[in-house]
Amino acid sequence: MTNRMYQKPYISILLFTLLSAFAFTNAQAQRRNQRYTEYINRYNPLAVEQMKIHKIPASITLAQGLLESGAGYSELARKSNNHFGIKCGNWRGATVRHDDDARQECFRAYDDPVDSYEDHSLFLKRGARYAFLFRLDITDYKAWARGLKKAGYATDPSYANRLITIIEDYELYKYDNERNHGRSAYKEEYITFNSHQVYLANDLAYVIARRGDTFKSLSKEFDISARKLVRYNDLQKDYTIIDGDIIYLHAKHKKAAKGYVAYVVRDGDSMHTISQKYGIRLKNLYKMNRKEPDYVPEVGDRLRLR
Question: Across the strands, what pairs with 302?
């Protein structure tokens, strides 16, 4: 009698658990885009191979490929085999024109998707503004995704979250663990360059200028147009960069990072040096403090930073 009393509830609970698991799995499968699944099945070996060679998480490479190429169906991917939306920059290979942030921008073109994957790895590994990423754990896809956004890989403010969502929805993180030589094989010391060390402030990548630096030389080193570097740093194109200048590698924010609410002006400060120190657009610094463009800060003045 005792066994009969407890048998029915036990079976009910078990049945409920199984049905719930099935419903979850089915719902998850329905959420998945068939094109995404096909892309992953086709290119995951290539992403893993790139991870082994260049130490970039396979999950990140796959997620970027999916997002940037529309799972291989974008015009840029279909006609030019460009799966990562990499623009020409200092590229000497084949090119193609494509509408993106502006009309008819120049993008790299490849003979085969394999070349696109390899170039994507080299683009990150040789780009000094991405150097800090290689200090991260190769399984920490969230930190890599956020780091790519901080370094200015894409202008979309939700870029990091979109990568993370793709990785988690399609369980791409499992490819980061396909290792043939154990964990140590994927450890790599921080990459140093003969060029500039890259730092972060207010979630923005920047460098400290050295004697002889010009917008042209920095443009070549970081694969960013000189025009953009001038604009990002609230400078004029004829400005002469001097040793010690902070030079941001992408657009500054409208306010300082959390924790930096106000600043008391010190000797030698200007509105521009303050805006550079805290990664704030110069016009926003004036606007926050209700100052006219001809305002010159004096020692002791208190300025809002956010």
Answer: 264
- Residue 179 near residue 185 (C-beta atoms within 8 A): yes
pLDDT tens digits, residue range 212-243? 899 999 988 888 899 999 999 999 988 999 88
- Distance, CA of 111 to CA of 123 (rounded, Å): 17
Angle, alpha carbons 295-298-299 (nearest 5°): 155
The answer to whether the predicted template modeling score (pTM) of the entire model surpasses 0.85 is: no
204 beta partners: 201
CA dist., res. 228 & res. 224, Å (int): 7
Quote the CA–CA distance of 76 and 40 in Å, as a whole number.
Answer: 18
User: What single string gives the DSSP state of each residue in 219-240?
Assistant: HHHHT--HHHHHHHTT--TT--
Token look-up 């609970």 returns: 13
Question: 77: closest CA among 42, 122, 126?
Answer: 42
Q: How many residues does the chain have?
A: 306
d(CA 117, CA 165): 21
Q: How far apart are CA 83 and CA 15, in angstroms?
A: 45
